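User: I'm new to structure prediction. If I give you an amino acid sequence, what do you actually give back? Let's try with this one:
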Amino acid sequence: MDRQHFFQELNQMDISGLEKALRSSQAFVHTLMDSIHIGICHVNTQGQILSLNLEGARILHRTETSCLGQSFHAYAECLYIDLGTQEEHCPITRAITTGKSIWTPQLLIRRPSGETRWVEFQSTPLTDPRHSGALIIFRDLSLELQQHERHHHLASMPEESPNPIVEVDAQGHLAYANPAMIRLLDTYGFREDGVPMVLPSTLTQLTLECLKTITPIRGLTVIVEGHHFDWTFSPLQEKGLVRGYGLDITHHVRVSQTMTELHSQFSSLVDSAHEGIISADLHGTIVSWNPAAQSMFGYQPDEVLGHSIVTLLEEGYRDMYRKGLGDISYGRPSTFPLQQPLELTGLRKSGESFPLEISSTSWKVGMDTHHGFILRDISDRKRLEQALIAEKDHLVTTLQSVAEGIITTDREGRISFLNPLAEQITEWTTHEALHRPFQEIFRLTGDSKKNDAEPSLQFSSRTLVLSELDAPQQLLTKCGRQRKITVREGPIRDHSGHLVGTVIVFRDITDQSRQLEEQQRISKLNSLGVLAGGLAHDFNNILTTILGNVFVAKLRMVSSDPLTQNLEQAEQACLRAKELTQQLLTFAKGGAPIKTSIALGELLRKSTIFALSGSSISCHFDIPDDLWPLDADPGQIRQVFQNITLNARQAMPHAGHLSLKVENVRLNDSSALPSPALIPGNYVRISFEDQGNGIEARQLANIFDPYYTTKPGASGLGLATAHSIIQQHHGHISVTSKVGVGTIFTLFLPSAHVTPEVETENIPAIPRNYRGRVLVMDDEHSIRRMVEDALTQFGYDVVSAPDGQTAINLVSKGLADGKKFEVVILDLTIPGAMGGVKAIQHLRKLDPRIKAIVTSGYSDDPIMCDFQEHGFQGILVKPYKIFDLAKTLECMFSQNKGETTH
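Assistant: Good question. You get back a string of structure tokens that encode the predicted 3D arrangement of the chain. For your 902 residues, that looks like this:
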């Protein structure tokens, strides 16, 4: 391009284009100067620094900005000797005054810390009036001088060197070896051709080449038995020899290998990361990036490497991010927090914009700054945020349509929201109630008068969930009407846990007064059930004493004594009384059933006949001989049979016929099950068919509801109790009826896997030998005395205790005296003192191997159902027979013997 054409194009460019071109040129020159590993400095005629590149700042051990305006003489002893006149001059001043370039091989630089550096120095005058002064170029000689000193030291002190040194003649023969080399020769020896193992195998050729070219040969590595030696050979012309300097670089090689492995691991980690990871140099130029970044932006590596990181950002963010990187690189204060995650807009190769989160860090390598970036495509997160906003709108819509009134307040207790149902109940519109005090809108009046003060809602500042007021409240509406409501309240907190308001959720129960009264009646009946359970418990304690003493009396009599028969009759009467107490306990609605394998036929006959006794109703049983056994609680199942039979008796008050049919059924197909709650398997089906008046279809759906009855004076609990018991046994009960014909109740109960064994009760023989120590804990003195007397007859050493703490003390004393108790019999409930459950926990700590039997008059207590889960090995339900007690004890002692044997 000729000069005229250039100026024509220059005239055609506008000022902004020239300024942009100038800035681009300046940036290029600045980058070029910083990439040169030679210090370059521009000083004015007084020697003050006008500009300084990155390498120059490193040599002076300062930053560029701290040097600007300072005299270069403050950092350097700028004197050199003129070889012609032998005079000392300042090279900078001399170059400016003479107009000639001045070069000196060594000039001393003094750093701020006092450290000195030798540099090669050249000062060139600048004749352009706009840029007067001098251009200084200086190079750090520290490394060269160190190497020179090192080689000089090795050359002058070979004998003291820890590294091997040899001198070799032109034929490759050793002329000299220092002590370190001699040790290596002793260790590794020689090759067959006479060349030492630690020297290169081509030693002769190397020697000839070195002497011929008079050039050192470096970087020769020899590996011997896993050790690496690096050799440098230099010619000694005056001797006609070649000197070799060896260095054991084994550690360096291993470190290098480790670094290579670490670098490989780091690269694998970076390459497998889901986030884009990019490294860049001082100016933000991309040096490397991982596959995730490539996938995120769509560029191939050769398309982005060498380009600025800001090219990945949308145009509006580039200048801002570029400035932030520059501030960090050159140590300038910045208000742009690059170290924190920033949400910007990224730009893909396709031109598509997307939300981008970018985090950055920086580190120094010497004086060089490097940057690292972690980039995340947060498109999904933004979509979720939008979905959250939509969900919030949906929540508001939901609150508007829920079947409860909802009011929210701010921290000051002013109304901030009412849903439509709250408006309907309070008769206040949102517009009328907004920002008004809560107590003005939500006026509660209690049932009892307390100084005419209205109760206020309160909750703890630590409350995290909705809390409910103790009782229903009366709400006074805007129009003065009273509504009965239930209220729940709770705090509203922000993400930091700070209280920001209150939410009140309430339900209008004005129309539910009748249901509330019904619940109160249910509560009274439950109290009656508790009373019945207590009576049954006490009665069982009395029966236990009677049964035990009758049994002891039988033991002390001969079998031919006429009184033995009377005692047996008394014993049978006690057992029948036990069945009555079991019915009381079932009415008391105890816990889960105590299941045993039972034969259904006999239980069904006895229960039905008992319930029909005194009536004129005939009964027919169809029970097969091969009926499968049941795994059930006999007392509760008896109650079911009797309740259904009593229902049939009430349906036929004058006379009638009741048919009972039992059969085994296999329900292996789920579609054949009468209820989804049942599982496929073997069941026993029991049907009760009466000839009563029948039940209307509209009433059938309610007959199992508690307290539902169509008969005057009835409680409405019989069928509800039967339904509950059948469910607890994982069975099913259903009913069909036809008015004027009769009703059929059908039960399905799962069969057991084990056929119940019929035990023959034989009075145990009284042993003559000692059988072990037993501790009996019971609050009833008569029971303790009876059990002591009975068990003493069977050879046991028996001690009794009235409560749990006394039992613990006795066991502790027995262990201390060497008279441990093998078995303890613990009453479950001790009024006013420690009962069996807490006692066994303490006893287990004293003696982990002690065996425990739990007894109670509450046979359906949950602990009696799962006694093993509470630390007991046996169970005795009061009233129990001494035969059962003796059998249980024999089982406990046999277990102890088995454990001792093992």
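You can read the tokens as a compact description of the fold. Here is one thing that stands out. The CA atoms of residues 586 and 636 lie 6 Å apart.
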